[in-house]
Amino acid sequence: MAVRWLDFQPLLGTSSKHLQTIIPTFRSAQLAPESARWFVNLSDDDRLSCEMSTPPKWQLTDQTVVMLHGLGGSHEAKYMIRMAKKSFDKGYRVIRVNLRGCGSGKGLSKLPYHAGCSEDLLKVLEAYKIEAPESPVTLIGFSLGANVALKFAGELGESATRWIKRCFAVCTPIDLKQTVLAIGKRMHFFYEMHFLKSLARQTQTWMKHKVSSIYEFDQTITAPLGGFENADDYYLKCSSKHFLSKIRCQTEILLAEDDPFIDASLIQEIHVPSSVNIWQTKQGGHMGFIGRNAVSHDYYWMDQLLLHWLEDDFKSDLLL
Fold it and tell me: Considering the domain 4-174+241-318 in this protein, what is its CATH number?
């Protein structure tokens, strides 16, 4: 399996993987497109809340972009808002999915979300295909949401194309345990505290006592409530690396070699079918990719790449 290297050039002074990771989390001037709240009923009577933005001239046969957020995120995450607005402006209908208990769905679920909740995603797509059966769907997952998207595509195999046209996965945690342990390193204390603070807000219904690490969170909350034996069982059964070989729909995966949480080299050990393309950059951090691109006023290189992909633009001049 050959990795395709992309020519990403960080903005001057932002080459550090930590700056690349942190800068995009600051407040963005980008405003979310107007959206209507759309609820999806799950099989256990929990509900998801999604934000649906429909351009004025959009038709039922036009494309739809379904987006999944990362750990501690929601439809209000900066990257979700940016990509929603840019996709909307290009004429795509955009659905920002809030996983269980997140964003506008807070209080609608008895159980929390996790990185393996592909069954919930299927319910979203089933419900949407009733409303717009002829609309081609592009699924975009970010970080934890990318793991969910890849697991979904792998589990369904050939039948995934019934629900989605293609899948884009950005900074997916290939091996959940590796990612959790990387976040738990002393040098990444700031990141872990940030994630735990967000998780505490989202899961206060289930969090009976303060936890000191994401691993402890998964051991005491995610695993028992998600039906797993323990945290390690959860990581084993839900890591996207176990599903990549089964994917049959068009899939594009974007990784950064210097991601502080994800060991991108792990993906080279996995057999992937011809339908899956692995794209990698030397720099970019985790969900960063702040750099130069053809749109001079927009330094979110990741966003522009995804927009190119949405337009089926895989130009060779992007390669190193």
Answer: 3.40.50.1820
Condensed to tens digits (0 to 9), the pLDDT of residues 254-265 reads: 999 999 999 999
Left, alpha or beta for 318 (phi > 0: left; psi -120 to 50: alpha)?
alpha
Whether the Cβ atoms of residue 136 and residue 165 lie closer than 8 Å to each other: yes
Tokens of 202: 């989202």
The DSSP code for 188 is G
Beta bridge partners of 167: 139, 251
Rounded to 10 degrees, what is the CA torsion of 133, 134, 135, 138?
Answer: 80
Domain ranges in the chain are 4-174+241-318
Task: Report which secondary-structure segment, H or E, holds 314.
Answer: none
44: how many CB neighbours lie within 10 A of its CB? 11
Q: Which two tokens stand for residue 114?
A: 């996790």
Q: What is the mean pLDDT of residues 117-144?
A: 98
Start-to-end C-alpha separation, the chain: 17
Please give the structure tokens belonging to residue 18: 């930590």
What one-character-per-residue DSSP string does 10-34 give?
BPTT--SHHHHHHGGGS--SPPPPP
Backbone angles phi, psi at 169, to 5 degrees: -125, 120
pLDDT greater than 50 at residue 229: yes
How far, CA to CA in Å, does 124 sit from each of 51, 96, 105, 315? Answer: 12, 11, 14, 32
Structure tokens at 97: 């999915």
